[in-house]
Amino acid sequence: MKLIGPFSQLISLDNLPIRGAIADSQLSIITDGGIVTNNGVIEKIGNFQTLKHEFPNAEIDWIKDTKIVLPAMVDCHTHICFGGNRANDFAMRNAGKTYLEIATSGGGIWSSVQHTRNASDEELLQLLLQRIDKLLHLGCTTIEIKSGYGLNLDSELKMLRVIQKAKKLTKATLVPTCLSAHLKPKDFEGSSKEYLQYILDEILPAVQSEKLADRVDIFIEKSAFQPEESHYFLLKAKEMGFQITVHADQFTPGSSRIAVEVGALSADHLEATSNGDIDFLAQSNTVAVALPGASIGLGEPFSPARKILDANGILAIATDWNPGSAPMGNLIAEASILATYQKLSTAEVWAGITFRAAKALNLEDRGVLAKGKKADFVVYNTDNFQNILYQQGELRPSMVYIDGNRLD
Questions:
Q1: What is the structure's pLDDT at 21?
Q2: Which residues pair with 97 in a beta bridge?
Q3: Smallest Cα–Cα separation from 367: which of 47, 7, 14, 24?
Q4: pLDDT digits (tens, 9 = 90+) for 116-126
Q5: CA quadruple 331, 332, 338, 342: dihedral positive or negative?
Q6: CA atoms of 167 and 161, how far apart (whole Å)
Q7: In this predicted model, what pLDDT tens digit does every residue of 259-303 receive, in sequence order?
Q8: pLDDT at position 106, please?
Q9: What is the DSSP letter of 361?
Q10: pLDDT higher than threshold 90 for residue 99
Q11: Confidence (pTM)
Q12: Which residue has the higher pLDDT, 93 or 6?
């Protein structure tokens, strides 16, 4: 058993609602706080001196100077297993080139597919571990990672196997998702409907057989897969036993309704979601995941986060870290920028990147500091937790704990 502290401010996020708006006045702040952990789980939080007397035999991990502590972050949507670089795409887009022009010149998602297919397993693994390490040191201890740059049986399995290898080499929790339905590959001879059937018949059974992922995603968009075929695909994947999530409403509205209708854990993107669809989504248990990194990278509108919260929806925030549209990979920076444009309270942001994001991954054991929860938390060298969002990503964690142990 270990007692960690004292912290000048301990913000537990416990007892905050899973859905809807949250005022900053609802945040509970414990001054001179401490955390007792036991076998990787939180035993108790409270005043440090009180805990010291209550648990006299606990090993003490002394925290010196003025520091604050919050639950570690959950990045519930990333594409960080990839090869290659698309900096030229970003430059061309900023210079006014269209998506078609960029793709014709050798860029776009297909560029990442080719680089990822050509990369060796070891190269992909090392690149992935570097990106995981960056997220860890930014305070994200739970990270969802999608395939989707392979787009055939061998390459999709390669990506998911690499993610499984990375699980054994990092202390972060990795949540793999099969995104073979990212778009129809150029070298597939057949329709998009036939490609989705190929995924159902060939890729997903292999993924299931090797236990590489229990989540399936699809990109529903005019340039990817259409609503009717996507609805069929998602129901079939669900029948196979997969949890499902959806890339929804990024450029055109309507697909978030499909996510709700098929019982998806989350609908991610939502930049083009209509007011009617916001209400439909907010009345469900499907988590709305805003991806501000994509809006920043593409120069597109932000997800209507304020409207989703005011409609009593469940809002999470993730990086969408990928080589094309969202290369930043800094959750606090992206969330604080989203908060500025969408007028989100500090409490709403922290809920969105912790326990609400965990719900999008169907994980109920993390995201708050409370008895029985996973002892993952982040420590900042500051006297006021508001400084974290105020500095928009420039204030980095001074310590990150996983299962009650401080990372090197």
A1: 98
A2: none
A3: 14
A4: 999 999 999 99
A5: positive
A6: 10
A7: 999 999 999 999 999 999 999 999 999 999 999 999 999 999 999
A8: 80
A9: T
A10: no
A11: 0.97
A12: 6
Per 3-state DSSP, the chain is made up of helix, strand and coil in percentages (nearest 5) of 40, 20, 40
Which two structure tokens, joined as six digits, stand for 262? 């098929």
Contact criterion met (CB below 8 Å) for 305 and 315: yes
Question: Could you tell me the two tokens for 26?
Answer: 């609802």
**Which amino acid, one-letter code, is at 147?**
S
87: enclosing H helix or E strand = helix 87-94
Helix/strand/coil (H, E, C) string of the chain? CEEEEEEEEEECCCCCCCCCCCCHHHCCEEEEEEEEEECCEEEEEEEHHHHHHHCCCCEEEECCCCCEEEECEEECCCCCCCCCCCHHHHHHHHCCCCHHHHHHCCCCHHHHHHHHHHCCHHHHHHHHHHHHHHHHHCCEEEEEEECCCCCCHHHHHHHHHHHHHHHCCCCCEEEEEEEEECCCCCCCCCCHHHHHHHHHHHHHHHHHHCCCCCEEEEEECCCCECHHHHHHHHHHHHHCCCEEEEEECCCCCCHHHHHHHCCCCEEEECCCCCHHHHHHHHCCCCEEEECHHHHHHHCCCCCCHHHHHHCCCCEEECCCCCCCCCCCCCHHHHHHHHHHHHCCCHHHHHHHCCHHHHHHCCCCCCCCCCCCCECCEEEECCCCCHHHHHCCCCCCCCEEEECCEECC
Q: Tokens at residue 143, please?
A: 């990270």
At which residue do the structure tokens 């693994």 appear? Answer: 125
For residue 105, what pLDDT is reported? 81
pLDDT above 90 covers what percent of the chain?
A: 96
Q: Which domains does the chain have, with CATH numbers?
A: 2-72+368-406 (2.30.40.10), 74-360 (3.20.20.140)
Listed in sequence order, the residues at least 6 apart from 319 whose beta carbon sits closer than 8 Å to its beta carbon are: 75, 77, 78, 135, 291, 293, 326, 328, 329, 330, 331, 334
Residue 404: count other Cβ atoms within 10 Å of its Cβ. Answer: 22
